[in-house]
Design goal:
CATH architecture of the largest domain: 3-Layer(aba) Sandwich
Helix content: 40-55%
Strand order of the largest sheet: 9-10-8-7-11-12-13
Radius of gyration: 22 Å
Number of strands: 13
CATH topology of the largest domain: Rossmann fold
Shape: globular
Structural class: alpha/beta
Distance between the termini: 39 Å
């Protein structure tokens, strides 16, 4: 099976789409093409030319539905499109309805429900990473610290809002990674990132790291991890933080509110009232840390079971599944059990 995967250059750096590429490699010969928004369409033109000159059994568009749209007049059919909530929620209904010959792989329940309402062929999945080894952390209030990557300085969450949230949660230290997605957004931003202490919160700052290990050291050590954006596609960084036992503080928006239970495996806040946060005790913080990691562990078990359904969806092997949602593998297991019981009775 020959497969072409069209992704983002940014995801190539963050490895957030690596799990899907691994699945596709197990299915056949994989070619990976990247779309770069910084190339002003040049990279997309190259993908169009590649489509004209190559033949594949399956095309997968990972948050690059805008490239798939350009291929529709050239006869694109039977492709799998995986839009992400953060980039697709504002698209008009007609945009999705034009893909009548394609299928959607949704990693957001909200987006999946909308696609179904539009009569699109959508199947919902929920990815979880490995939980990994637990990290021993002190939970005394005097040791509470946090990490925040400021990716969109002009939006909430940003340095200013997160510092105030730290103050509301009694977090005494914050490491601010001031590396916006788009360099121009960092120009003229407020000066919070250049101060050592703001409203009683000690602030350390970094801009970028040449060594990934240095970034890993400052981002994984703190007990609290602030989600970097208002909405996410999957939110891989926050899932990895939960897997480390960090308490993720995130906006109550997709897809964070799909993966995080407020006061059960993390903290969710209303972006219109970002400082309305609960008072936490040391015992609660310890419980939240443990629950976050347990949530990832259980989620990973579900993903491992659901991988078979994803492969069935990608290959269109004709198997029938109980539903198009993330519980389908469980329903299918029940159907198998009933069928086997009937066969045994006949024997």
């Amino acid at each position: 099976m020959k497969i072409c995967f069209v992704g983002h250059t940014f995801h190539g750096r963050t490895k957030s789409s690596a799990f899907m590429q691994d699945v596709l490699r197990d299915l056949g010969d994989l070619t990976v093409l990247d779309s770069s928004p910084e190339d002003a369409g040049i990279s997309d033109d190259a993908i169009i030319e590649h489509y004209r000159s190559h033949s594949y059994d399956l095309w997968v568009f990972w948050q690059t539905e805008y490239v798939a749209e350009r291929l529709l007049p050239l006869g694109l059919r039977n492709a799998v499109i995986a839009p992400m909530y953060d980039g697709a929620w504002a698209r008009p209904d007609a945009f999705f309805q034009q893909f009548v010959g394609c299928r959607f792989a949704s990693f957001s329940r909200e987006l999946h429900k909308r696609l179904l309402q539009l009569d699109c062929r959508s199947v919902c999945f929920e990815y979880w990473p490995e939980a990994g080894e637990a990290i021993d952390r002190p939970f005394a209030r005097s040791t509470w610290s946090a990490f925040f990557w400021e990716r969109r300085p002009r939006e909430i969450p940003n340095a200013r809002s997160v510092i105030q949230q730290c103050r509301a949660l009694s977090i005494g230290k914050l490491h601010l990674h001031a590396a916006p997605d788009f360099a121009d957004e960092g120009k003229g931003a407020h000066g919070y990132r250049f101060r050592d202490k703001v409203n009683g919160v000690s602030v350390s700052t970094s801009k970028w790291f040449d060594n990934a290990a240095d970034y890993h050291a400052v981002s994984t050590t703190p007990l609290f991890y602030f989600a970097p954006r208002l909405t996410e596609g999957i939110g891989m960084a926050t899932l990895e933080a939960m897997a480390r036992g960090q308490i993720v503080v995130a906006p109550d928006r997709p897809t964070a509110n799909q993966y995080i239970g407020h006061m059960s495996s993390g903290l969710l806040y209303d972006p219109d009232r970002p400082y309305a946060l609960p008072m936490l005790g040391e015992a609660q913080v310890e419980d939240l840390s443990r629950a976050a990691r347990l949530r990832v562990k259980r989620g990973r078990e579900e993903w491992d079971l659901d991988r078979e359904r994803l492969i069935s969806f990608l290959t269109e092997d004709g198997r029938r599944w109980a539903t198009t949602d993330i519980s389908a593998h469980f329903g299918n297991k029940l159907r198998r059990a009933v069928r086997e019981r009937r066969l045994n009775r006949r024997r």
